[in-house]
Amino acid sequence: MEMIIDFPGGQKVDAHFRGHTVKTDQPNDDTAPMPFELFLASIGACAGIYVLGFCQQRGLPADGIRIIQRNYSNPANGLLGKVDLEIQVPPSFPAQYHAALVRSAELCKVKKTLEHPPVFDVTTKVVEPV
Question: Would you say residue 130 has pLDDT above 90?
Answer without folding.
Answer: no
